[in-house]
Amino acid sequence: MAHRATLTQVAQRAGVSIASASRALNGLVASPATVDKVRRAADDLGYVPDASARALKMGATGQITFAVDDIGNPVYVEMMTGVQEVVAASGFRLQVTATGGTRDVADVLDLLRSMRRGYADGLVLSPLRVTAELVAEIAATPIPVVVIGRLPDGAGVDTVMTDSARGVALAVEHLHAQGRRRIAFLNGPGDTTPGAARRRGFDDAVAHLDVVASTHEAADFTMAAGREAAHRILTAAGRPVDAIVAANDLLAIGALHAAHDLGLDVPGRLAVTGVDDTSLAEIVHPPLTSVSLDSRRRGQLAAELLTRRIEDPTRAPQVLSVPPLLHVRGSSAPTPQAGNR
Amino acid sequence: MAHRATLTQVAQRAGVSIASASRALNGLVASPATVDKVRRAADDLGYVPDASARALKMGATGQITFAVDDIGNPVYVEMMTGVQEVVAASGFRLQVTATGGTRDVADVLDLLRSMRRGYADGLVLSPLRVTAELVAEIAATPIPVVVIGRLPDGAGVDTVMTDSARGVALAVEHLHAQGRRRIAFLNGPGDTTPGAARRRGFDDAVAHLDVVASTHEAADFTMAAGREAAHRILTAAGRPVDAIVAANDLLAIGALHAAHDLGLDVPGRLAVTGVDDTSLAEIVHPPLTSVSLDSRRRGQLAAELLTRRIEDPTRAPQVLSVPPLLHVRGSSAPTPQAGNR
DNA sequence: CCGGGCGCTGTAATCGTTTCCAGGAAGCGC
DNA sequence: GCGCTTCCTGGAAACGATTACAGCGCCCGG
């Protein structure tokens, strides 16, 4: 807990003015002799420039904020990794803020408002729910914002999206090709952006296929909610479903558990697919077929958009998209009798 | 991207001096009339105080940094959650920095040095490896640091530890009580702090038990490394082991996979236990018996120590400890046919 | 020998806040 | 009416850095 040296002290010790000291340290015009003296003095004192003072003077903090709704979900961890990679490479520091639970949209508004204090030079945001208020607040934020997700058309904000509707369709088509004909869709809350998109994808996909389809909503994008909802699906009266398409990996894993609880063989009696292709997909048994939306890549792209916009705030807003990709694993294996486990 | 209003503008609009404006907004002495005028002006202009300027003047940023080695491990996510809870409640903002991969200790030193720039008012650190250099650098850091883990005695740093050696012993004793007698310890890198402690715990525990014990090291605290090492353990010549004690959940899950690859029934032929009791333990099948070190609680405690020290930097350094707790689940069920859960 | 240009330096202003200090206007008791 | 306290206010100095500007010495050509 030693005390910090200031530029004034360095200048004093080197016997020059603070202006010269600053110039010497920043590689601006200065005689070799001065540079040498100042360098030595700075080293002796262990001088490091103060971030707040520099930020105040320069009008830039060198920080970027990533706001995430639910740190518990590995998806966001992966996104964060992607963001961090790019952000660190550009010389920024990453600041992560958890905007509370999934239920509260007020939190993220608070965050946006607090950004006006100038904590960071840019913000990456991945909101679960998009309201008009949110869009307005983003527009009013004095620093560049990049959204991972989907905003209303013409929002004029840099965005990285993915076609998760198409992703769900990929899963449905895959299951259909494997001969599954009674497919249930296990969605998260329908009023969230991903919930709405994935439901649309499911509906569109089943519309032109000869399958018996049904849709169900879990209370949350969590494993517990998925397990509970899957129980309902699997114990409902009538002919049993032979496949569950879950809107995300956590829900899918909940479905795997429900199947196990009920003694249903996966993939023999029931196929299950997830979305996000998180690390969890390879951890469970049977390994989970899942649609990758490449969260890490989305994080990288978002960070790139952001750093580019910080450099040149006049750029036209850009919308990038990452295509979904189906990863087939054991949970949707073609034939029952392959019988792993 | 509207431009930001400054206190000067607010004061002008309210027709008072900036001193009065500042006082009015901060609830210091000011007449009701002034407060009213200033409030109104501030609202009109959408004024929010600038963080950098305030930080410069006050010498405090209102930020706390949490440095984590490996965001991929759910343990750290849980710790982060705990830290965030306390930190947010105290009015600080949390900044998370990933200090690269597990292999590089230089990173965390860089981070510590960069803290001297005054980015934050405090730092929570959970280092995987502790070197003399690290301890020295911590001592030289101008802001309070709290370490989650274990430092050399007398380091004089606030610390939150857990008795992970005892934790491993709990697992061993449990397995012994269930009748397991040929127990393998699946450790991560032995040169890490947790690796060393857990190995010690294992050695001590088996020393006074009638078991055949062996120790093995995986390259990393990851599932892939655990699977690979467990393969070696399970295919070694001689009488087969009937239990694997893994040094963490990821390794344990790797072992579950290896067992499955080899067609070994868990818990029938082989019991497996993990450490950390992460959310993954309940995701796998059979659910993993694991020793909880309550990462979230450790995060909370660390954050509390930190905020308290920030308030009063003269406090004597404190070392807190969280006791390990064994959570028995299916992967170590007593008898194959009991099949609980 | 003198003036212009060049290279380097120091003084001082500035970023947006907070806060010390001095001073003015009331209010009060006498 | 006078002195005192009380309350509020504005001016100005910080915090630690960057940087515009002016000034200094020196070299060089004419």
Automatic annotation (TrEMBL), chains A, B:
Please tell me whether the keyword Transcription is annotated for this protein.
yes
Which keywords label this protein? DNA-binding, Repressor, Transcription, Transcription regulation
List the molecular function annotations (GO) for this entry: DNA-binding transcription factor activity; transcription cis-regulatory region binding
**UniProt xrefs under SMART domains:** HTH_LACI (SM00354)
Q: Which residues form the signal peptide?
A: none
Entry superkingdom: Bacteria
Q: Which PROSITE patterns match?
A: HTH_LACI_2
Q: Which residues form the HTH lacI-type domain?
A: 5-58
**Name listed for the protein in its UniProt record:** Ribose operon repressor
Give the taxonomic lineage as stored in the record: Bacteria, Bacillati, Actinomycetota, Actinomycetes, Micrococcales
